[in-house]
Specification:
Largest sheet: 8 strands, parallel, barrel
Number of domains: 1
Shape: globular
CATH topology: TIM Barrel
CATH class: Alpha Beta
Strand order of the largest sheet: 3-4-5-6-7-8-9-10
Helix content: 25-40%
Bound molecules: phosphoenolpyruvate, manganese (II) ion
Length: about 270
């Protein structure tokens, strides 16, 4: 296995995306809305999260929605807006690719290409992103075991890249009080088994904005290399995932809290 920690020399243990390093001493804080909704919305939130301490910007242009009737994203226009937000803030951009046909367009703009939970089993897409020349953020399938997740990462790596970051984003269990069950044990376990950086997405992992600060702190405490959080200027008006989105003020508070936790575990923010 290419990801195996015993596979000496195979990996470097850190991944660079648009000047940001995953797996170094400094934690990566990815923030932004679930979805790019408009130019005004994206530019406003991009500046706000930069100000609050984000080191990378997120925002979906091509959205994987459970319902075919839900807003599917601004697509290419969304990518152009993300590029403008990067120019404004200096923050590198991560955004999801839904299908292989879109990959050249997405990879041309993104600093990091995200494969979402619903596509983790799409081996054709996994091979394609592994060959696209951009670092890959591979989210855990919501029903994937650790072994299945690692094999998905193996598909990406087998395509010739070493630039893969894992993201625990919650798994489906019998619990319905939260949207998913955030499996934080995955963080130290993945770090035991691989040399790949691991980050945590407590927004999708809980589905509840009020739980995100505590689970972000827990993620850093258990060794995550970063956190990805949904932040929206007006969560109550968000077209997607407003109930799990922090306001910029909440995000600013979380960053301050993470600074203290990071120091306790020998990292920096
Ligand atoms: C996302 O991060 O935008 C997203 C859709 O997350 P997931 O694939 O984990 O559901
Ligand atoms: Mn979302």
């Amino acid at each position: 296995m290419i990801f195996d920690k015993n596979n000496v020399g195979a990996g470097c243990g850190s991944v660079e995306a648009g000047g940001v390093v995953f797996g170094g001493n400094r934690l990566v804080l990815i923030a932004g809305p679930c979805t790019v909704e408009s130019r005004e919305q994206m530019l406003e939130i991009a500046c706000a999260v930069k100000e609050a301490g984000a080191t990378m910007l997120r925002g979906g242009a091509f959205k994987p929605r459970s319902s075919p009737y839900a807003f599917q994203g601004l697509c290419e226009k969304g990518l152009d807006i993300l590029a403008e937000a990067r120019t404004r803030t200096g923050l590198p951009v991560v955004t999801e690719v839904l299908e292989t046909a879109h990959l050249p367009t997405v990879a041309a703009i993104a600093d990091m290409v995200q494969v979402g939970s619903r596509n983790m089993h799409n081996s054709v897409l996994l091979r394609a992103v592994g060959a696209c020349g951009k670092p890959v953020l591979l989210k855990r399938g919501m029903c994937a075991t650790i072994q299945e997740y690692l094999l998905a990462a193996e598909y990406v790596l087998d395509a010739g890249t070493r630039q893969v970051v894992l993201c625990e984003r919650g798994i489906r269990t019998f619990e319905t009080a939260t949207r998913f069950t955030l499996d934080l044990s995955a963080v130290p376990l993945l770090k035991e088994r691989t040399w790949l950086p691991v980050i945590v997405d407590p927004s999708h992992g809980t589905g509840l904005a009020s739980l995100v600060p505590a689970m972000s702190r827990a993620a850093v405490a258990c060794g995550a290399d970063g956190v990805m959080m949904e932040v929206h200027g007006h969560p109550e008006q968000a077209l997607c995932d407003g109930e799990q989105s922090e306001t910029p003020e909440m995000f600013y508070r979380v960053v301050r809290e993470l600074r203290a936790i990071a120091e306790a575990v020998g990292r920096t923010v």
